[in-house]
Structure prediction request, 231 residues.
Amino acid sequence: MAALLVGVLAGCREDGPQDAADYGEALFQSSTLSSSEYNSFSCATCHATTAQAPAGRIDSGHTLYNVAARPDWWGGSETRLLDAVNVCYVNFMRGVTKLGPDEPRSRALYEYLSRISPDAQAPALPFTVVKDIQDVPRGDATRGEAVYRAACQNCHGATHTGEGRLTTFASVLPEVTRTYDEAFPGIPHAQVVIEKVRHGPFFGVGGTMPLYGKEALSDADLGALLTYLGL
Ligand code: HEC
Ligand code: HEC
Prediction:
């Protein structure tokens, strides 16, 4: 036992925090972090890591710049960083068991997230889930197209064909709504789409698509997007 411990500690010394952070960055960018054959997402699919998200990118998740310094996460509902990560890992990436606190992968992710968190006083970020699903005023189609490209296209690919989509699980938009009369009789198609975008896999609706809180996507952008999709 003692010999084993010495071996483990020696191993830790060899891979210093710098190596661990590099390994963590590689894990962050890889969909193989989750061993599920149904997963195509990496952490980087939904999170930028720069102070401001790059132009032309609307993500469901906040940038993770300064994430390790925030006092809490998920709008205050998570108070441990690893728990906040595991919400994503289990719900969106189909990780079967949570990442454990002592796993090398968790430590490496932590070193990486710490490296991109230079401001010790960084505040928590707001996250507001839209509770009641209501119709939204429609907007401008050109703006809606820009929203589609920034928010949806990476996963769903081109409208009408799905060309270039990240995974074939991501339905072709808006064509998939043709199935909604049967699947959701009496409910306007746009309302099903709003429900999906606002609640993702939560509230009893299945799947792995992330939910968009108010801070991630405004009702105005959602309305423009619906116009662009012809809904
Ligand atoms: C499919 C999209 C998606 C994937 C993949 C994903 N996340 Fe998230 N993540 C979200 C959303 C949506 C939120 C909630 C909004 C927010 O707080 O950023 C979130 C929240 C978080 C938060 C809390 C941020 C805060 O300040 O409240 C952390 C930490 C986090 N994710 C880390 C990760 C890590 C690490 C991975 C990879 C293991 C990952 N996420 C994968 C979508 C995703
Ligand atoms: C991180 C990848 C990802 C992003 C970003 C994303 N989706 Fe999805 N979406 C999926 C996946 C995967 C599915 C199928 C699994 C599921 O239902 O969650 C899906 C399902 C859907 C569905 C339900 C289709 C059905 O079968 O009824 C709708 C509607 C939808 N997405 C709309 C959107 C819109 C609009 C956007 C942009 C605001 C968007 N999605 C962004 C991955 C994504």
Remarks:
- The domain at 141-228 is CATH 1.10.760 (Cytochrome Bc1 Complex; Chain D, domain 2).
- The chain has a mean pLDDT of 92.
- The pocket of heme C (ligand 2) is lined by residues 41, 45-46, 151-152, 154-156, 167, 169-171, 173, 176, 193, 196-197, 201, 207-210 (CB under 6 Å).
